[in-house]
Write a structure and sequence with these properties.
The protein is of the alpha/beta class. The chain is built from five helices and five strands. It has helices at about 1-35, 55-60, 75-80, 120-130, 140-150, and strands at about 50, 65-70, 85-90, 110, 135-140. The protein has a five-stranded parallel sheet.
């Protein structure tokens, strides 16, 4: 009886090692896939995020609608040129800088960065949704579209 019990435990252990190995392999390949996806353009849509064109955001700003505009680029890019009134919160610092965001989770918050191949505003918008914000916008084509339209920067 002891020998049979030991064999069963060894078999269970082998199965567990096989399952864990398979999971590790899947995680490695999933990571490689994500890294490859990051080289291309950001998705056209993000669940829970409304997409904006530069003209839409400009109208909202001109009408003095309540919206917090967030430049998700690094500080040097922000200093070079940003949408007037935008605040600078780098995506990786969102948790640390959450006090810069509205306390009201239903407030409108719009994120932008360097265009369709820049993932900073995409990731920031995803984080904002995860943080519970209900009125999240993204200017997918970012500051390049804003400048192309001849809109002001500061």
């Amino acid at each position: 009886a002891i020998i049979g019990s030991t064999c069963r435990k060894e078999e269970e252990m082998r199965r567990m090692v096989s399952v864990l190995t398979a999971m590790a392999v899947l995680l490695v390949f999933a990571g490689i896939g994500q890294a490859q996806d990051r080289k291309g353009e950001t998705p056209l849509t993000i669940p829970g995020v409304k997409e904006l064109k530069a003209e839409d955001l400009k109208k909202m700003i001109d009408k003095k609608e309540k919206i917090v505009v967030v430049d998700s680029r690094i500080a040097s890019e922000y200093k070079e040129a940003h949408i007037p009134g935008a605040i600078n919160i780098v995506e990786k610092d969102m948790e640390k800088d959450k006090d810069k965001l509205p306390k009201d989770k239903s407030a409108a918050v719009a994120f932008y960065c360097n265009g369709a191949k820049c993932w900073k505003s995409h990731d920031a918008a995803v984080k904002a949704v995860a943080m519970g914000y209900k009125n999240v916008y993204r200017l997918r084509l970012g500051i390049p579209e804003w400048k192309d339209k001849g809109f002001p920067t500061e």
